[in-house]
Amino acid sequence: MLRNIMLLFLLALMFVALWLLDIQLPVWPLAAIMLILASTNLVTRIFIYKGREITDQLLFIQLLVDILCFSLVLYFTGGATNPITFFYLIPLAIAATVIPGRLTWLLTAVTVILYSLLLQYYVPLTYRGHEHHTMTGEGHFNQHVLGMWFGFLVSAMLVTWFITFLAKELKQRNQDIADARQRELRDQQMISLGTLAAGTAHELGTPLASLAIITGELTDGYDPLQHPELFENQKILRDQIKRCKKILAVLSDSAGDSRADSGHSMELSEFLQLIMQQWQAQYPKASAVTRFQLPPDGAKLLYDRIISQALLNLLNNAADAATAAIEVEANVEQPFLQIKILDNGSGITDEQIAMAGQVSFSSKPGGLGIGLYLAITTIRRSGGNVSFNRLDTGGSCTLVQLPLL
């Protein structure tokens, strides 16, 4: 981009010198230099389109070509006496910003040598006809000073613009690196939790088997008609133990599986109905009011067991906090399925909103906070997002965004 700007600027200066100031210029050598610069830019553009690796050495060669071509332009237009010598600062400023110090100093040395040679070796500027005789020395000096001012102005603007652009890009890159490090830390926490879960699943197998046997013996010898409450509680215990065993079996079967391979596409209505059915089965005492506004085009998303588990955790948290039925709303905001979970609980604090997804915490007595952390991390790793807001009427709103296929 800068080379194109320089080409246009030099062509404009040649036009001014030839037609307005009547300065005699070697047009053909200058045209050849412009052609070299234009050809270099064409080759560079092809190189970029092909996605080749851009190395420090390549940037050095690009800047060296600019310096050499600009030195040739100066050679044919008055050498060091040309007021646009300020343009030497532009490639040096770029070099100091984007390539290592050793190559930058090498470019600086080349520039100093070329500029020094232009003090002695150059083609002087001459004027046509009577202008050469009528213009006084003071007129030449004033013209030179004006040219220096103009060259400095353009150089300062280009350097400021380009350095500001690079500073913005570097700031964005540093932010991307910081975000990547944060994701890496979260991934390490997920790995630690996964290792802990695998060990826990192994250790819980024997106690659950013992509980299953003892639960059946609790009502041995009792009459179901005389002790219906006892048999009902025994049934609840047996069902809960079966559920725990099923969860452990799913955990064992899923260990090491690729989540992308185990998922499959599912229509939004089917997905939401399945989630609500699973939640009601796990949380039979809770109730929810659902409002689904889905498009008729049969939009789909990638169903994955860990995604459904994350949503179930969020629904459970809302039901635990609420004193009445929770509300679940769903609609499509391309390219996401948006799910709002609203409860009338005590709400969520600003501190909790800031900590959500960063660390494990819980506001429930005896809670570990792992479920919320895993839910947020899982959904974000799938390309979605989870955010929280306090409601003016009390309670909180959990907004879940899941990417559509």
What is the CATH homologous superfamily assignment of the largest domain?
Histidine kinase-like ATPase, C-terminal domain
Q: Report on the biggest sheet.
A: 5 strands, mixed
Q: If classified by CATH, what would the architecture of the largest domain be?
A: 2-Layer Sandwich
- Tally the helices: what do you get? 13
Strand-pairing-aware structural class: alpha+beta
Strand residues, percent = 5-15%
- The value of Rg in angstroms is 37 Å
Supply the number of structural domains.
3
The H-and-E topology, N to C, reads as: HEHHHHEHHHHEHEEHEEHHEE
Count of DSSP E strands? Answer: 9
Shape: elongated
Low-confidence stretches: 130-135, 256-261
Class of the largest domain, according to the CATH hierarchy?
A: Alpha Beta
State the distance separating the first and last CA atoms: 38 Å
CATH topology of the largest domain, anyone?
Heat Shock Protein 90
In which order are the strands of the major sheet placed? 4-6-7-9-8
Task: Give average pLDDT, whole number.
Answer: 79
- Helix coverage percent: 55-70%
